[in-house]
Write a structure and sequence with these properties.
The protein contains six helices and 15 strands.
Length: 262
């Protein structure tokens, strides 16, 4: 019986693609919900993490991005470098310490050095003079990555992609019942359902995950016609470190992705 993956977003597609490439029979089921976690045209790829384990995982993800790009012939990202800025030194210093520990190339930059390298960036005095720049940072063509993963998965003999919602999951019999009435047996079940995870867990009669509410505001800036000043060839991706004002708050801050070619 195949491994059945529930969810056709970036996590589900990546899992199914990796399994099939490794010689494992896999079936991916995606309900095709309009509301989903994997959406949008761009994302950031980086090794900019203070946790060494996350850096190692990010480095591995770059290897897999490269494998997908080579197999598909698609351009999946633009290398920009990653600039971390912040309002306190603590998190920036912690990031630099991790880079040192893992032998990761980086630079510490003052506001003046930032402005000299990227004249369009002017950091205010609220930011500390301790920015961290790492050459390993990319603007990812997220929608292209999703479509490419799907196309490459479908081409693999051991993989099956089905646009079907799951109505019932029987963990004793190891079966999933689809909306068209068919039943599929599985050897293992991978839940990669994103915002629909609790819906799936409920169908499996398992404990639900606690919900954490977050607020994210996206802002799009128009670039001057004909200008490349704010493009991925001129600007880095930027991570803003901003400590939470209250202990119960997870975090706050910003991410900036430069303008990408059409």
């Amino acid at each position: 019986d195949p491994v059945v993956v529930l969810g056709g977003g970036v996590m589900g597609l990546s899992t199914a693609w990796s399994l099939a490439r490794s010689g494992v029979k896999v079936t991916l089921l995606d309900a095709g919900h309009a509301e989903k976690g994997s959406w949008g045209e761009s994302r950031i790829a980086r090794v900019s993490y203070a946790d060494p384990m996350l850096v190692r995982l990010a480095r591995r993800s770059y290897e897999l991005y490269d494998a997908l790009a080579k197999e598909s012939g698609e351009e999946l990202m633009y290398t920009t470098g990653c600039l971390d800025v912040g309002f306190t030194r603590e998190s920036l210093d912690s990031l630099a310490e991790t880079y040192e520990e893992l032998g990761q190339s980086y630079e510490r930059l003052t506001h003046r050095q930032v402005a000299q390298r990227w004249p369009m960036l002017q950091l205010s005095k609220e930011y500390v003079e301790a920015s961290v720049f790492c050459p390993n940072g990319d603007a990812v063509l997220a929608s292209v990555v999703l479509e490419t993963l799907k196309e490459q998965l479908i081409r693999l003999a051991l993989a099956q992609y089905m646009e079907q919602a799951v109505l019932e999951i029987d963990r004793t019999k190891k079966t999933v019942t689809l909306e068209d009435g068919r039943s599929i047996k599985y050897s293992k079940l991978v839940v990669a359902a994103g915002i629909w995870t609790n819906h799936v867990l409920k169908a499996m009669d398992l404990a639900l995950l606690p919900l954490v509410t977050s607020i994210e505001q996206q802002t799009y800036y128009a670039t001057p016609e004909g200008s490349e000043m704010y493009s991925s060839g001129r600007l880095p991706v930027i991570i803003e470190h901003n400590p939470a004002p209250e202990p119960q708050m997870k975090r706050r801050g910003g991410y900036m992705i430069p303008h990408l070619p059409d």
